[in-house]
């Protein structure tokens, strides 16, 4: 009986400790994830960090089918990106153009290039120095979502602004 009680208590303690997520941070709180807090409060909480740019400013804009025209939501996000880039002059940006899986490889490379160029041109009109921006098109080669449904296609029709250090000022 004593062994049985001990075994039950041990299993209960083991089950409770397995439910704790303290090993991985505190749920969805910003900055709670990452090894030793490296990705944590200093990065996301720091408005000068790339993590803040990605999460708070927004690093991507979406496009309609076969379109490279910026919609109002995209322009709003890009205006915020431009403000961030203007106040954080040590970063350069590469704008990646993407397309969904529909269409030929060649067509989607060209479409991704038009999307990346539209974003670059908008950022330049907002005051970002052209020398800090470059573009690349991945076409349909790097999908964010892999499925043949409109919801997935919509996420893959995008331009993503990727930051890198190096502008110097």
TrEMBL record:
It is found in: Cell outer membrane. GO terms for biological process: cell division. Gene3D superfamilies: OmpA-like domain. GO terms for cellular component: cell outer membrane. It is a lipid-anchor. Keywords: Cell cycle, Cell division, Cell outer membrane, Lipoprotein, Membrane, Palmitate, Signal. SUPFAM superfamilies: OmpA-like. Residues 51-167 form the OmpA-like domain. CDD domains: OmpA_C-like. Residues 1-25 form the signal peptide. Belongs to the Pal lipoprotein family. Part of the Tol-Pal system, which plays a role in outer membrane invagination during cell division and is important for maintaining outer membrane integrity. The Tol-Pal system is composed of five core proteins: the inner membrane proteins TolA, TolQ and TolR, the periplasmic protein TolB and the outer membrane protein Pal. They form a network linking the inner and outer membranes and the peptidoglycan layer. This is Peptidoglycan-associated lipoprotein. It comes from Qingshengfaniella alkalisoli.
